[in-house]
Amino acid sequence: MPVATAVAHPNIALCKYWGKRDRALNLPSVGSLSLTLAPFSTTTTVEWGADFDELVLNGRTGTAAEASKVFGLLDLIDSWRPRVRVLTENDFPTAAGLASSSSGFAALALAATTAAGQKRSAEELSTLARRGSGSAARSIFGGWSEWKLGEREDGLDSYAFEIAPQDHWDVRMIVAIFDAGPKSISSRDGMLHTQQTSPYYPAWVQSAPRDLAEARSAIRNRDLAALGTVMERSALRMHACMMAADPAVLYWKSGSLWAQETVRMLRDQGIPCAWTMDAGPNVKVLVPAAHAGVVAARLARVAEQVHVLEPGGPARIVG
Ligand code: DP6
What's domain 3-166's architecture? Predict the structure, then answer.
C-alpha cells in the first residue's frame, strides 16, 4: 500500500489574508505575505488504500467537520481515489491562532499527492493546499512567501511563491501565548462574517496592495523598521475591520494589549521589533535574532508561554 509522510511548518502572515472572493475555490480578496516558522511543525502520514476513510488528528479521531475538509481535499487529488488513512500530529497548540491549518494542509497536500504517485510542482501544491485552507498555500514554501491574489475565476493563478529563502535574514518570531485554548470563532467563520457585516471591509481590501508592496521591499532590504510599520498596520486594519463587524469579532485579551505596549516600549529603548496578531489573543513579535532573548524574557513576565521561532524550510517528504 503506498504510504508517504510529509512535514510542514506553520507560517505567520505579516500582511494578512482576511476575506474571500470565492468561497468554493477558497480564493482570497487580498494578497498576503508571511514567514514560515520552525521548529513548530505538522507531520502527516497518508496511506493511499485503507479499509475505510480514517482521520486521526493528534491521537484522536477527527470530527466530522475536520474529516470533511481533509477528505474533500483528497477528492480533488483523485476523484476515483481509494479509501485513505490520514494520521496527523502538530507539535504545538492546535487552533489557537497559531496557524495549525497552514502547516496541516500543506503537509496533507504533499503527503497525499506523493502517496497517490503524483508529482506536483510547488505552485501546484500551493494551489491545492489553498483549497484546504488559504494560509496553507504559503506553508509549501520556506522562508518569506507571498500568496498571490490572482485574477482568474478558476483560481489557478492564486498560489504562493518564495520572496526570500529561509536563510535570507536572521530574525526570530516570538510567540507570546495568552490563551492556548481553541479560538472563540474560526478564521473561516470570522472572515465571512466580517465580509458580510463590516462597513470597513471595502477599505481593508483597498488598502492591502500598498502593504504588500512595502513589505516585499522591506524584506528584500532586511529593514525591520519598515517591515514593522507595515506588519502592525496590516494587523491593526484587519482587526479594526473585524471589530467593526456586526456583532463584533474580537480576539484581543488584556494580555494582547499589554504585549503591544511592551513592544512599543522596547522599540523606544532602541530594540527593533514589531508585533502581529491573528485570529486569537496571542501576539507574535518579529525581532532580529540578536535581540530575541531580551524580548522573550520581557514577554514571559505576563504571557502563559513564550516560544522563540526561527525561519523554517519548505514542506518536505520525510518518509
Ligand atoms: C488571520 O487560512 O485559516 O491567520 O482559508 O478559511 O482556512 P481559511 O482561513 P485561514 O485564515 C488565516 C487568517 C489569518 C491571516 C493569515 O494567515 O493571513
Answer: 2-Layer Sandwich (3.30)
CB-CB contact of 145 with 33 (8 Å): yes
Q: Whose CA is nearest to atom 3 of ligand 1?
A: 187
* pLDDT bracket for residue 94 (50, 70, 90): low
Rounded distance, CA 188 to CA 101, Å? 11
- Chain position carrying cell 484581543: 252
The per-residue pLDDT for 162 is 98
Q: Answer whether residue 92 shows pLDDT above 90.
A: no
Provide the pLDDT for residue 97.
57
Select from 3.30.160.670, 3.40.228.10, 3.30.70.890, 1.10.600.10 the CATH code of 171-311: 3.30.70.890
Which ligand 1 atom lies nearest to the CA of residue 135? 2
State the closest ligand 1 atom to the C-alpha of 28, by its place in the atom list counted from 1: 5
Q: Please tell me the pTM assigned to this model.
A: 0.96
Stretch 81-90: mean pLDDT: 97
C-alpha to C-alpha distance for 286 and 83, rounded to whole angstroms: 43
- What is the Cα–Cα distance from 255 to 264, expressed in whole angstroms? 14
Write out residues with Cβ below 6 Å of ligand 1: 13, 16-18, 26, 32, 99, 101, 133-135, 187-188, 278-279
Ligand 1 centre from 51 Cα, in Å? 33
18 alpha carbon – ligand 1 mean position (Å)? 7
